[in-house]
Amino acid sequence: MRKPLIAGNWKMNTNLSEATSLVQAMLPELDRIAGVEKVLCPPFISLVAVRELIKGTSVELGAQNMFSEDKGAYTGEVSPLMLIDLCAFVILGHSERRQYFAETDEIVNKKVKKALGFGLTPILCVGERLEDNEAGRTEKIIKGQVQAALAGVNSTSHLVIAYEPIWAIGTGRAANGKQVNETIGFIRQTISQKYGKRVAQDLRILYGGSVTANNIAEFINQPEIDGALVGGASLKATEFLSIVKQTSEIKGHLSRED
Ligand code: PEP
User: Fold this and answer.
1) pLDDT digits over 221-230, tens only?
2) What is the CA radius of gyration of the chain?
3) How far is the C-alpha of 46 from the C-alpha of 64, rounded, in Å?
4) What is the pTM of this model?
5) Which end is more exposed in the chain, N or C (fewer Cβ atoms within 10 Å of the end residue's Cβ)?
6) pLDDT score of 257
7) What is the C-alpha to C-alpha distance for residues 247 and 35, in angstroms, rounded to an integer?
8) 252 near 4, Cβ under 8 Å?
9) CA dist 114 to 35, 69, 84, 128, Å?
C-alpha cells in the first residue's frame, strides 16, 4: 500500500515569472489527478510564490537542497529552519550535488539527519556511475550510499529514496525498467536488513533518469518502483501532466486515501 509519488526537480531552471507560469499551466489538471502524491521542487527563490499558488490544492512542495546547520555564518546556504514553513520535502544527495559541489556520503548523512529531525521528508538520491554499472558494481555502490546516508538514523518513517543511475540523468538514456526494478528491490532488501521488513515494505523508492511521458509506464508497471523523480520533463507542463496521469492510471489504486 505505497502511494505512488511523482516529484518534479526543476533544477537551476526558471526565474520567478517562468516558475509561476509553469505552475499555472499545470495546476488545475494536476490538482485533479488522484492516487498519486505530486511534488514540485522549484529553485529556492520561487518556493514562496509556488507555495502561494498551490495552497489548498493536492500539490506539494519540495526544495532541491539544504544545509545541515540550523543557522549562522554560512553565506549563501539555506537551512532546514527556513524550509520547514515552506515545504514538506527536500531532495538530498542528488548526483549533481555530489558531482559539482563535492557532497560526500558524510555530508549527505548530516543533511538527512537534520532534515528528518525537523520533520522534512528527504528524497534521498543514490546512483552509480556508468563504469560501476558496466563493471557489475551497482549493488555494492548503492548499498554503500544507502548505508552511509542513513548511518545513525533510527526511523525512516519520513523518507523517500530515489534510485538515479548517474548515466541516465539528463542524458536521454533511461535505464531498463526490469533492471531498475531489481535494483530497487535490492535497496528495499538493504533497508529491510537495517529497519525490518515492515519498514522496507512501506518505504517509497522512486526511479529517476530521463523519465518522459513515453517511458514512464515501463517503470510504473514494475512492482518495486513507486514513482519517479523527473528532471527535464518536469519543465514541460503537458509532459509532466501525462507522467502523473499515467502513474495514476497504473498505480493510483494502491493509495489508501483515494
Ligand atoms: C533528476 O533531476 O533527478 C533527473 C532524473 O533528471 P532527468 O529526468 O532530466 O534525467
Assistant:
1) 999 999 999 9
2) 17
3) 11
4) 0.97
5) N
6) 55
7) 9
8) yes
9) 30, 8, 12, 24
Q: Determine whether 69 is exposed, middle or buried from the number of CB atoms within 10 Å of its CB (0-12, 13-18, 19+).
A: middle
Residue 164 among the catalytic residues: yes
Give the 3-state secondary structure of residue 166: helix
Check residue 58 and report its DSSP letter. S
CA distance 75 to 252: 43
**CB-CB contact of 251 with 4 (8 Å):** yes
- The Cα–Cα gap between 179 and 175 comes to 7
Q: What is the pLDDT of residue 256?
A: 56
| Res 258: pLDDT | 46
DSSP 176: P
Alpha-carbon distance of 81 to 90, in angstroms, equals 12
Handedness of CA 201, 8, 56, 44 (dihedral sign): positive
> Which of 89, 77, 6 has its CA nearest to residue 51?
89
Q: Which three cell numbers mark 129? A: 556511475
Active site residue 94: yes
Find where cell 555530489 sits.
98
Cell 525512516 belongs to 156
Cβ of 231 less than 6 Å from ligand 1 = yes
Is the CB of 91 within 6 Å of ligand 1? no
Length of the chain: 258
> Can you give the pLDDT at residue 77?
98
Give the mutation target among 211, 225, 243 for probing the ligand 1 site: most ligand atoms within 8 A of CB. 211
Q: Which three cell numbers stand for residue 91?
A: 531532495
pLDDT tens, position by position, 8-49: 999 999 999 999 999 999 999 999 999 999 999 999 999 999
Residues of the chain with confidence (pLDDT) below 70: 256-258
